[in-house]
Write a structure and sequence with these properties.
This protein has 369 residues and is an alpha/beta fold. It has two domains: 130 residues, Rossmann fold (3-Layer(aba) Sandwich), CATH 3.40.50; 133 residues, Rossmann fold (3-Layer(aba) Sandwich). The chain is built from twelve helices and eight strands. It is globular, with a radius of gyration of 23 Å. Its EC number is 4.98.1.1. Belongs to the ferrochelatase family.
Length: 369
């Protein structure tokens, strides 16, 4: 493999573009054991995700997990796979990118490109950045779609971006949005999404705000994720007008035997089921697009545990997905971080004249085009 990637052919008459790249976790290409296995291997081989000595983890991963888990995971994916559109996480993220492209088109004059990529699986980060390079993007804003920062999610996504840049001879300028757990537009979008659901289905006795879990040691070592989830929960509760007894912040998707941040979502719902709670609603503020963790783990598995324990009604409130308030919030955040990279004063005709003049000067100095 060459040390550096081949650069697109340069044309002095071209106008530079700004790229906006949405980054999400990932998904297998199909709900099959054959597709899930390489996806899980890539995901669970990330040292940001599993902080166990490499040699020991290699034996566990390849000797046990990848021999048993792909089949079970494939069955879970099959239960939420859309027959027409495929993976929910992928098609929701793709739609968000298209909607953001349209939103920015109404607010930005400068040339720009919006694309999306998955940290694991397809479309890969490298493929998306290659497309942006080929389209002449010399400035790129990366937006990990994780409201709450965690080393295992946000930092890992940026690792993939930086790994690509290490192989670029002509690197673009790069900015990133680290987190938006307390962004006013994001909180407003969550609030409107929940209110809309309650207007159609009524209100619960308790609202569960379930976030993806992380090992407890990550908090002890300085990862801000747990604290940012708590702040999101508090701000959302305040926006909804809920008292402390009307909601709970919990954590799902525990893996392995180590202690993870608490309280656990599944245990909390079982507890509420044993208490004969008439109705609980669960929302997952840490996911801006529905995926396996929301549609299968929460809306199916946890629901079954709650009802089996003696609970009454269980409602899962969908993620933000293509919610217009969310697209507006995403657009406003994007504009704020683009800053001087885009300008309302940009004029296409003037830019073309400048590019043509630049080409003419370059040709005089010996350039081919």
């Amino acid at each position: 493999m060459p040390r550096y990637l081949t650069e697109p052919e340069h044309t002095h008459s071209s106008t530079a573009k700004t790229g906006i790249l949405l980054l999400n976790l990932g998904t297998p290409d199909a709900p099959t054991k054959q597709a899930v296995q390489p996806y899980l291997k890539q995901f669970l081989s990330d040292p940001r995700v599993v902080e166990i000595p490499k040699a020991i983890w290699w034996l566990i991963l390849n000797g046990i997990i990848l021999q048993t888990r792909p089949k079970k995971s494939a069955e879970k994916y099959a239960s939420i796979w859309d027959k027409r559109e495929g993976s929910p996480l992928r098609f929701h993220t793709e739609k968000q990118a298209k909607l953001l492209q349209g939103w920015l088109g109404q607010h930005v004059q400068s040339p720009f490109v919006v694309d999306y990529a998955m940290r694991y699986g397809n479309p890969s980060v490298e493929s998306a950045l290659n497309r942006m390079s080929e389209q002449g993007c010399d400035r790129i804003l990366t937006i990990p779609l994780y409201p709450q920062y965690a080393a295992s999610s946000t930092a890992s996504a940026m690792d993939a971006v930086y790994a690509y840049l290490m192989r670029k001879r002509n690197q673009p300028a790069v900015r990133t949005i680290k987190h938006f757990h307390d962004d006013a537009g994001y909180i407003k979008a969550l609030t409107e999404n929940i209110h809309k659901y309650w207007m159609q289905h009524g209100r619960p006795d308790i609202l569960i705000m379930s976030f993806h879990g992380v090992p407890r040691y990550t908090l002890d070592k300085g990862d801000p994720y747990f604290c940012e989830c708590q702040k999101t929960g508090r701000l959302l509760a305040e926006s909804l007008g809920l008292s402390s007894s009307q909601y709970r912040v919990t954590f799902q998707s525990r893996f392995g035997r180590a202690e993870w941040v608490k309280p656990y979502t599944a245990a909390t719902l079982e507890e509420l089921g044993h208490a004969k709670t008439s109705r609980v609603d669960v929302v997952c503020p840490g996911f801006v697009a529905d995926c396996l963790e929301t549609l299968e783990e929460i809306a199916m598995e946890v629901k079954a545990d709650f009802i089996k324990a003696g609970g009454g009604e269980f409602h899962y409130i969908p993620a933000l997905n293509e919610n217009s308030a969310w697209i507006n919030a995403l657009g406003e955040m994007t504009l704020a971080h683009l800053g001087d990279w885009v300008s309302p004063a940009w004029d296409k005709s003037t830019a073309q004249q400048t590019a043509t003049s630049s080409q003419q000067r370059a040709i005089i100095l010996g350039a081919k085009q």
